[in-house]
Design a protein that fits this description.
Helices cover about 60% and strands about 10% of the residues. It has helices spanning about 1-25, 35-45, 50-80, 85-100, 100-115, 120-140, 145-155, 155-195, 200-210, 215-245, 260-265, 310-315, 345-350, 360-365, 380-395, 410-425, and strands spanning about 270-280, 285-290, 295-300, 325-330, 330-335, 400-405, 430-435, 445, 450-455. Helix 3 packs antiparallel against helix 4 (about 85-100), helix 3 crosses helix 9 (about 200-210) and helix 9 (about 200-210) runs antiparallel to helix 10 (about 215-245). The termini are far apart.
């Protein structure tokens, strides 16, 4: 850290030295003021009330336009993400703001409104498209697998926003803010020089230019750089604090349901699927009907690529079948990939999924104590797998779907989780895709080319 600051100071000293040498070479303060003359002028102006009133006035106008533009860009990016038609409607307006020359807009606004709101409008114009497009790009980068998990476990919008969407858009938002704020100051000061609003940096710059006060012009340039830098650091600091606010956990999650009866509060533990078909690239993956009775334990054993995961996704409502209907009650699921929220610890992952009971005790039974302080992204593969099994079992549901629940576990951990599942199934319908079973039942049923073992 110390070497980093030393390097920055040396770089600044280099540019100050170059500035001083250039001033000595020109040897004319009217054309090129030296660092000493500029700092002297800055000290003189800094003691006047007009100086601080001008700085404050410009700061309010420029940052006001920045905040207004950022707010609308943030809101409209979400609207465009969830309602693509609104994004298509906004597209010509965004392209207009990006393409139209700022000077032309300044002239038009001066004719319409005068200089009173000119700077605010120009700041809005240069900031809005940049923040909007970066936000929209970040939202489109949201992990769809986490969104599917959230749908299955009934996570509310607030939790999704803070724990899933936020992680996707945050780096794009920070980048947009950093770039846009500098653009806002550049264009805002330029608009002030043209419009000359009272008590503004642009007005003072213009006056110093008229009177050939080059030292004053240089002094104002330094002021602009300093307040732009300070505003950027302050806003990013505040944004970092706000973006770090923890999520509220849903107290009464509804759980996943996609049947008519379940939606009316009459969820069934039966799994019924009539004539469901699913094809990818004209290859038929699923073609079957199911009628699995409540409370049963079912095993789906088939080679890789035969559609086990696809069938579970159809039953969970993650994917839609090309034909046929699926009807079942509330579902919780162990996914083939764990789909944990990486920046949340084990306990928070269970809370966000709406799990119930003494969650701390349940975690301690199957996982090491360090998982309470460790984000899920930093857990081992086996720990993530056990946590995903816990999430499915402790979520209030009628049906448990488990896709390779013991993948990556050693024999000891596998046997321990099998016993844990037996104790916590609580009579719910259990459907497991994989090769590890809970009992030695030999009752085999073949459905749609897929082999099932039923207990």
């Amino acid at each position: 850290m110390r070497n980093k600051w030393v390097k920055k100071i040396l770089i600044l000293l280099f540019w100050f030295l170059l500035w001083q040498l250039t001033a000595l070479f020109v040897n004319n303060p009217v054309y090129f003021a030296s660092p000493a003359e500029t700092l002297k002028e800055l000290a003189v102006q800094g003691r006047t009330a007009v100086f601080w009133q001008s700085v404050t006035g410009s700061l309010i106008r420029i940052t006001g336009g920045f905040f207004i533009a950022s707010f609308f860009a943030f809101a409209l990016a979400f609207l465009s993400y969830f309602v693509p038609l609104s994004g298509a409607v906004l597209s010509p307006f965004i392209n207009f703001l990006k393409s139209v020359p700022v000077a032309a807009v300044v002239v038009i606004l001066l004719i319409w409104w005068g200089s009173e709101h000119l700077v605010l409008c120009i700041s809005f114009m240069v900031v809005f498209p940049n923040v909007y497009e970066n936000m929209l790009t970040g939202l489109k980068k949201t992990d769809t697998k986490l969104l599917e998990m959230a749908e299955v476990f009934g996570m509310g919008f607030v939790s999704r926003f803070l724990w899933i969407y936020r992680g996707a858009y945050r780096p794009y938002l920070f980048s947009a803010v950093s770039v846009s704020l500098g653009m806002a100051f550049k264009s805002g000061i330029a608009a002030e020089i043209i419009g000359l609003p009272a008590l503004s940096i642009g007005e003072r710059l213009y006056r110093d230019k008229i009177y050939l006060n080059t030292a004053g012009v240089f002094a104002w340039i330094i002021v602009i750089l300093l307040i732009s830098f300070a505003a950027e650091k302050l806003i990013l600091f505040i944004l970092k604090i706000i973006s770090g606010i923890p999520a509220a956990c849903p107290k009464e999650p509804s759980g996943n349901t996609h049947s008519t009866d379940a939606a009316n509060g009459m969820g069934s533990a039966d799994i019924k699927a009539e004539g469901i078909k699913k094809a990818y690239n004209e290859r038929l993956m699923i073609d079957c009907s199911l009628d699995l009775k409540a409370g049963g334990v079912y095993y789906l054993n088939a080679p890789s690529g035969k559609g086990k995961t696809t069938l579970l996704h159809l039953l969970a409502g993650i994917e839609k079948s090309d034909e046929g209907t699926v009807s079942c009650g509330r579902i919780s699921m162990v996914f083939q990939d764990d789909r944990l929220i990486g920046n949340a610890n084990a306990l928070r992952n269970l809370e966000l999924a709406g799990c119930r009971g003494d969650l701390t005790a349940e975690i301690k039974e199957v996982l090491p104590g360090r998982v309470f302080e460790t984000p899920a992204a930093r857990l081992s593969g086996g720990e993530k797998r056990r946590l995903s099994v816990l999430r499915a079992l402790l979520h209030p549901s009628d049906i448990l779907l488990m896709d390779e629940p013991f993948a990556g576990l050693d024999e000891t951990a596998k046997l321990k989780m099998i016993e844990y599942i037996k104790r916590h199934r609580n009579g719910r319908t259990l459907l497991i895709a994989g090769h590890d079973v809970l009992s030695g039942s030999e009752d085999i049923v073949s459905i749609g080319g897929l082999v099932w073992k039923q207990e």
